[in-house]
Amino acid sequence: MQVTINVNGEPITRDVEPRKLLVHFIREDAELRGTHWGCDTSNCGACTLWVDGEAVKSCTVLAAQADGHDVRTVEGMETEAGLDPVQQGFIECHGLQCGFCTPGMMMTARWLLDHNPHPSEEEIREAISGQICRCTGYKNIVEAIQWAADHPATSEVNA
Amino acid sequence: MQTPAPTDYVRATSVANAIALLEEHGEEARILAGGHSLLPMMKLRIARPEMLIDINDLDELRGIRVEGDELVLGAMVTHREVLESPILSEHYAVFREAEKVIADPLVRNRGTVGGSMCQADPSEDLSALGAALRGTVVIQNSSGSRTVPLREFHEGPYETKVGPAEMLTEVRFPIRPGAGSAYEKVERRVGDWAVCSAGVFVTVKDGVVADCGIGLTAVGAEHFCAPDAEAFLIGKAPTEENLRAAAKLAGDASDPSSDQRGPADYKKHLAEELTFRALTRAAAASQGA
Ligand SMILES: Cc1cc2nc3c(=O)[nH]c(=O)nc-3n(C[C@H](O)[C@H](O)[C@H](O)COP(=O)(O)OP(=O)(O)OC[C@H]3O[C@@H](n4cnc5c(N)ncnc54)[C@H](O)[C@@H]3O)c2cc1C
Ligand code: FES
Ligand code: FES
Hints:
The complex is a heterodimer.
Chain A: E1 2-7, E2 10-15, H1 22-29, E3 48-51, E4 54-57, E5 70-72, H2 85-92, H3 102-115, H4 121-127, H5 139-150, H6 154-158
Parallel strand pairs in A: 1-5
Antiparallel strand pairs in A: 1-2, 3-4, 3-5
Helix pairs in contact in A: 2-5, 3-5
Chain B: E1 8-11, H1 15-25, E2 29-32, H2 38-43, E3 51-54, E4 64-67, E5 70-74, H3 79-84, H4 86-91, H5 93-100, H6 105-110, H7 113-119, H8 125-132, E6 136-141, E7 144-149, E8 154-156, E9 159-160, E10 167-174, E11 179-187, E12 194-205, E13 208-217, H9 227-233, H10 240-253, H11 264-286
Parallel strand pairs in B: 1-3, 2-3
Antiparallel strand pairs in B: 4-5, 5-10, 6-7, 6-10, 8-9, 11-12, 12-13
Helix pairs in contact in B: 9-10, 10-11
The structure holds flavin-adenine dinucleotide and FE2/S2 (inorganic) cluster (2 copies).
One FE2/S2 (inorganic) cluster binds at residues 96-102, 133-136 of chain A.
């Protein structure tokens, strides 16, 4: 079947099998490899991206389901104004080591801050509770998201 | 890499259209709601539908509303919408308490109430909640719709009263002024399925329990409920002693099996203890404490 998915604002049309998972469409067809693919069992969150503004695990959504919908991936985070504060926060606070979980963590972080600009530590931990990081022990990830909450203005980030 | 077996995909345009598609494609067709139970099962090839009928476009299945003395949830209401619904929280704390511990925020963004009920996993949290509140579901087919009490809905693990060319369209819960409610869950780690959960409501009037409901999940309680424990409490003061005795009966209603989530006697203990804790909080809430 043919699908057209709006990925980071750009419509991408491909022929896909109906069984194709969105994570594979993004990585293989859209050739955006920032979205990672880990457990394959809806548990690790490495594949997290947005569909119509909601953070979801893209290994548990069919590309067919996203036909005609808006998808945002980690590649769509940076704007002309520069890095998203969440990205800057991960740099400032050393929020990653191997980086495998990072794109998913950042997509959830941005989603959280858009809904709740001043989350408590507990709310941050709750938001990323469906995601696994094997390296950092989560502490620096939480601090990175907190940093982004404290520095919402992109101009400040790029200053 | 886990990939589902080849399948076809179609988007339903209305409930009537979805039912017509189910009739046309027969037993090999499956409704696709949030997909967060079905797609994992398809990856494992436990489910191999040849046609997926996506019902995500059906706005008629969305929304949470009050209708008369009932709360009505469309089948496509997501876990997150239940969690954040002011209408539901106003009437029962148990919705928020249960949803907070169902899966994780990302799964809750996709998984639906109708999908949870139809999946009928023996550890489904909303099944315990539905049994506790004595909810009903509306099932539709091409000749009309019928209402089935949730306490009669499950035919067994993963089996419900929804027939091959039928759909669940709504879940309904009676509103009970003055009721207190609570949910208690023990899980191995955040976002996991329950080792055991208990969901309850209690209405205390003139110092005695006028009405109550007790739901249990993951411990093999028939229809996810504990009717003897409920019957015991009616007309009694919600004292610690009485709530303990009712909780003991709830433990007796469970019939858990040992697995990687724990041995059977531990789960039976949880059924009793979590029921006691939930009853205690619900009774206090009903008395405005
Ligand atoms: C990582 C993870 C953790 C989870 N943890 C928990 C947990 O702790 N507690 C818990 O209760 N659940 C948990 N779940 C399950 C989650 O709640 C699922 O979303 C839910 O069980 C199924 O809802 P769905 O909308 O995704 O259904 P789908 O997967 O789309 O469908 C499930 C089944 O129901 C059928 N169906 C769906 N809608 C209808 C309808 N309207 N009419 C007729 N048939 C229909 C489908 O054909 C399919 O057979 C977890 C899931 C995941 C992936
Ligand atoms: S790859 Fe999707 S949750 Fe792990
Ligand atoms: S940085 Fe390595 S998994 Fe998180």
